[in-house]
Amino acid sequence: MVEHDLYSTMTRNLRKREATSPSQLLAFSKMPEPTSRTVSHAAEIMENSIQVMKRQPSWPTDVLSEELLSVIANLSGCLPYMLPPTCPNTCLANKYRLITGACNNRDHPRWGASNTALARWLPAAYEDGFSQPRGWNPDFLYHGTALPPVREVSRLVIRASNSAVREDDQYSDFLTAWGQYIAHDVALTPQSAGGEDCGRTCENRSPCFPIQLAAGPGPAAGAPCLPFHRSAAACGSGDGGALRGNLSAAGARQQMNALTSFLDASTVYGGSEAAERQLRDWAGAAGALRVHARRRDAGRALLPLARARPACAPPPGAARAPRAPRAPCFLAGDARASEVPALAALHTLWLREHNRLAAALRARNPHWSADTVYREARKLVGALHQLITLRDYAPRILGPAGFQRYVGPYAGYDPTVNPTVSNVFATAAFRFGHAAVRPLVRRLGPDFQDLAGLPGLGLHDAFFSPWRLIREGGLDPIVRGLLASPAKLQVQDQLMSEVLTERLFVLSSPGALDLASLNLQRGRDHGLPGYNEWREFCGLPRLETPADLNRVIANRSLVDRIVDLYKHPDNIDVWLGGLVEDFLPGARTGPLFACLIGRQMKALRDGDRFWWEHGPVFTAAQRRELEKHSLARVVCDNTGLTRAPVDAFRSSEFPRDFEACEDIPGLDLDAWTEPGPPGDGCGLSGPVDHGDAVFCEESGRRLLVFSCHPGYALHGPEQAACTPQGRGAPPPVCKDVDECADPTRPPCHPSARCRNSEGSFQCVCSDPYALAEDGRTCVDSGQLPRATWVSVALVVTLAGCVAAFSWTAIRRGTRSDTKATLPVTERDSRVPVQAHGTSPPRTAAQGPEQAPPPAPDPAPSCLPSSMQSLVLRDP
Q: Where do you find CATH 1.10.640.10 in the chain?
């Protein structure tokens, strides 16, 4: 019955053209910016090309030359994204990180950069050794048995009633929300760019890897699956570095991370120059980010709206409009900002924090350029993300012993550490938090009690609904709910609430997905090895029997169900195995996930040249101020709350555990005050049009570094030394870049025509095609061409004229017959009467009793005047 309901609601949603299906919403939330989509498309072409060559029986060897691989990479469009990036050689390169994350490590400039492959800590376990996911082939056996369908695992092992929620007595709902937010800061794996509509097939045909439902009678039996798109491939292989000569090594499918791996607040700023350009407020306050143009929240800023891709739930009134149009989602550094209210709240908090810091820094340093203000505020916000995550969040997740073992104290930047986010971390380990999501969104009033007008909101009514934050009380009620509500405790017989396994992404129209099934299927799609392989990787003993499993999973009933489904411990999916382990002391993860998460956190810290504790990044005084700051202080500074718990992650009861905001310490920005430029003639005189200039120091010299706004290129020296006589060279010029003239990275899809504009470009489609949501691809608009509409209009007009002509002729003919039979008195009664009651004058020709003939009906006005003369007159 459950399978029938889940599938039937989804199919009803898909049949309604005006409704956005759950799978479309998932695709929207995983939609990266255009550069990532271009990389993804090129990677699919390269992978398919290598796969075809590998399967050719006439190919003499399993080894391709580096030259041939280079040709394939070049023709597919992958080569520009596989070569090492050109790193800037200015003093700013040591002061501010690039928005793409590239060049953080000078020896390995692609480590941690956006649009590169996720790291493989173990070799991929594909069924064909190349790209086919685990479970792709029904006849492929693991220890003599097929892997169980992921939906069966979700239904029999993971799903729990929404009412069966055990609350965490130590931690607040803010801990869960922060984990999801940070997961979105370090990884986004887009869906495959393949054109197949995975909502219309239940076959494993790339890019579709459908989630099979249980067979049985009922409507679902005809198409027993839920749609699932595979993750996008990455250009290249392994680390995404140099090409390799071995075909199997070069060709194995890797998944792409569209964001930077670093804890750098990509959620706020994006992971590409194009995203950064869209998010910055270029015309407003210096260094600020864009905000909602029309709406405010008690005078405070709200996230702007992404007008180009309306995919979110509309307000109730709009939902009843014809075709139930989708509403715009929030625009943020990550496309998933509108998924749930907690995420939207955190994105809004950090937008406000950036703009608050930018205004305060500008007030202290009026000589700073807009670019300097922006870079310094971004640097501060990124540092606070790092500090809150490693100091406050990670120790609670890993427990004291786990944190000490896998992370430990900071010992400085290590250029040999690869910070790239691993596949197993992003796809399995850091998804442990899904088991701690409450099925109810609490919105509380100033007294931290439920608001009469805003009762608890079922999570299924909150997915992709930014209007609820805008229209239903703003940010404060949601933040109060996160602070004063305990998190859901991850209990082995209450792993994931039904709202996530049966009603994921339900909007105003029917439809649902299953988050547990998605997680399991995603792990198989990425070729993650099984549970025991990862335990061995972490130095943990393999579990070979049910008795072994019982040593790490206390719930015997759960172990029995897992063994019944998987038959052998080696077959267990890593996400499930790590999720059900008993917690370590003081932790919210078991031994396996503590290892995988801890290792990743340590790599993100130690392998980041711009980590906030690394000596050159901040001064000692600035580091001392940063240590005072906290998430509670961010809440106080950017909401209407006057009291908050000092530790936002601790379970707190109002008013006992809440402190007045003025008593919660924060950083003093006086440590960022810099003296104005000396009178050396360098100054900021002669600013660069369409660009900016930033001061920095290198080896005791003051330098002025120039940059151009997006869409412009620098012509002239990138930096100039400041001397007592002024700049050592004339200022450079920022000239418009003709993006349309770049053959290696065309900005528009081949289906569109590129038109250059000042500082930008526009993709133009020929009638009747229209731009797709990406703004770069032409798709069928579903309408007739304009020329066809003109033809149709002419045909309709002509047909109307012919009908009018025929009707006139019929009426005149009928009138003539009627006049011949009418009595004289009736004819006389139609004689018009002049004013004052006098009779009209009669001519001799008319005779004494003859009335003048009636005027003929006018010719149809739609005909030309030459045709109107042909209309029949009275006989």
A: 2-188+204-213+221-606
